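Recap for those who missed Tuesday's class. We walked through two folding examples back to back. For each one, the amino acid string is listed first and its predicted structure tokens come directly after. Nothing is annotated here on purpose, so try labeling regions yourself before you check the end of the notes.
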Amino acid sequence: MKKTIILFAAAFALLSACRNQDQPLNADVEIPVSVEDLKLKPIEEFINTTGTAFPKGEIELKSKIAASYFLGENPRTGRPWQLGDRVNSGDLIISLEDEEYFNSVKLETNQLNLELMESELRKQESLYEKGGVTLKELKTAGINYENAKTAVATSKLQLEKMKIVAPISGVIVDLPYHTRGTQVEAGLTMVKIMDYKTMYMDVQLPEKYIAVIKPGLQVKLTNYTLPGDTIIGTMTQLSPAIDASSRTFKGTVSIDNHDLLLRPGMFVKADIVTSRKDSSIVIPKNIILSRQKGKTVFVVDRGVAEERIIETGLENISETEVIRGLSRNERVVTGGFETLSNRSKVKIIK
């Protein structure tokens, strides 16, 4: 009886195996993947650094005399000057009034005296030509005339101390408040102006790049407050000396900030472009797999994933140039490649 049961079980197992062998081998699972059609596009290789942007033009104007304070009007808005206003070189921002100081300058008196000294000099010159005066008398008239000119020039300079005038074009970034007509002392900050249409940024660069980074290289600058804007700068200066403690060397970037997108003091991310190609096969850097046989990616052809060994060229943080192993218009797998093996069946989802 036991023999019969064992024989029956063996026969059933053999029959089941035969049936399984007769079923078609179509049980392969299609792995969902995302793909990208390869097209020629530009790629840049760059060195990343950071720094703080500073204005090229910056000036702080202080009161030179003790006087009454009067804030001027912006001729373009018709209201008193305020923070953020743009000024042109020569704009009157603040008047400092003091009648006693004005009288002590004696500009009108000195101008009248200059006219008299000029008339006396012309008279002495005429007489000297006719022999009517000595050379000493002529020279004395000349000295008196020059002294009168100096007195007028000094008076004008003294009167300029009563006006706070913008010496550069820029933007008012500091304007301490004083009540109109109040007395201010000499040496107080009246206004601070910055011209930041052109800015600069000092950067510290790793020693290994000293032979790569050169003056004239393009620099692309971004700030987290300007997510959609890239501002172009130029590497202008490089120190030949290496800092022994940090193993870095100093560089200066000049920034074209014509639209005033960057503000003085902003922390800036800078990409120094060291190489560029305008037309190459470029793939995302994160899809490259490191195998014993080399760098590989997957391409899709007729529903099957093929692992392809590639050789790369320029690269940056997010992209890599492929110089061998891929062709234009092939479809490279950009998503779902982690579970693929060579000749896996795939289903393209996008």
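Example two. Treat it independently of the first, because the proteins are unrelated.
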Amino acid sequence: MDPTAVTESLQRTAASAVELAKRLGADQAEASVSHDEGLSVTVRIGELESVERQRDRGLAVTVYKNRRKGTASSSDFSPRGVEDAVRKALTIASFTAEDEYAGLADPELMARDVPNLELHFPSGLDVDAATEIALRCESAARAFDPRIENSDGASVGTGEGVRVYANSHGFVGGYPSSSHSVSCSVIAKSGSSLERDYWYTAARAFEDLDDPEHVGREAAARAVRRLDARQVKTKIVPVIYPAELARGLFGHLLGAIRGTAQYRKSTFLLDALGETVFPEFVDIEEDPFIPRGMGSAPFDAEGVATRRRMLVERGVLRGYLLSSYSARRLGMQTTGNAGGAHNVIVKPNAGTLAEIIAGCNEAFVVGELLGQGVNPVTGDYSRGAAGFWVEHGEIAYPVNEVTVAGNLKEMFQSIVAIGSDVDLRGAVRTGSVLIDRLTVAGG
């Protein structure tokens, strides 16, 4: 893929759709256009199992007329295909109800400069090279321990694409990006105990991925550690979320402070702006401009310039995640979060996961969460789990078939440590989290 040529072509398509919509009577219009290419290779038991090639493109046109909104999509970028999509959007708008909050973001908020955030790194991998990497990963996992009984396989995924957005304020912007990953899943056996676990690495640039052998060994080690798990009696104890699972805790926070949840009154943090929702040591920042960051973006899905800001400062909630629509519903201004948050950074106040464990006389370390038992309106939290029991600062044995239960508002307030072992594989960057008291319900 030639990123410059593709970006320019998509910009012409998006701009032509917006221009046509205005000519055909729209008061305002916007268009999003995308082009994606990718390769995914999976091996299992030392043999190539599957090869998938992806090549997708799409156009979404939204028009506003008399405060009525219509959206249509297409994969046909020809002049006729674009015109059909625009006319369909206008037809749909004629049937929708008026909405005083509908419309584009304000023109003065559009991104003026689009910095190079180093988001595009083609891997250059062909099927043979990707297969060789996957085989190295799985081989390392299978050789790690004789208790590795079977394999679900190892996969290498590599993809790149371009997103372009244009609207009738005259904004046209787009940039290429890439994402690459290596993953492995294996099964360990000991007597009648059979456990599966996995590991993965992900980054914008292939060179930033962990070695495939490391990924395989980590997947195997995680599976072996879970063998011969015990059950425990119900207790209220400290609970430790390793970094890869702690991301989910802060994901619940982001869901609760989205503008949609606020104006629909469907959040356990309703009208919580300015309230203390975490202990005083907790700072959470949004930084869209981290080079190679998985959540980096110079503008949001409405062309609004993104910006660095504090979401939580000294435990106090300082900002919501607002699009222009949700902002208008709340009588506020968009925060440049149409489409989601950008690199949410939870600042640490403690050491690594091992150091956090060493500081606990008794605790439960979550290894896996099961089910969807979280109520976003009340904050009630109840998740099936497996993991490890800590005694006297050391992991004593694996545990399964328990339930971790609490309420997110109380859980946030009960955080006593955020680790320095920050996971960089997603848009939320956090280390391990220690919550002082949670119910771990067992047999």
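Answers for example two:
The CA atoms of residues 193 and 228 lie 6 Å apart.
The longest strand covers residues 148-167.
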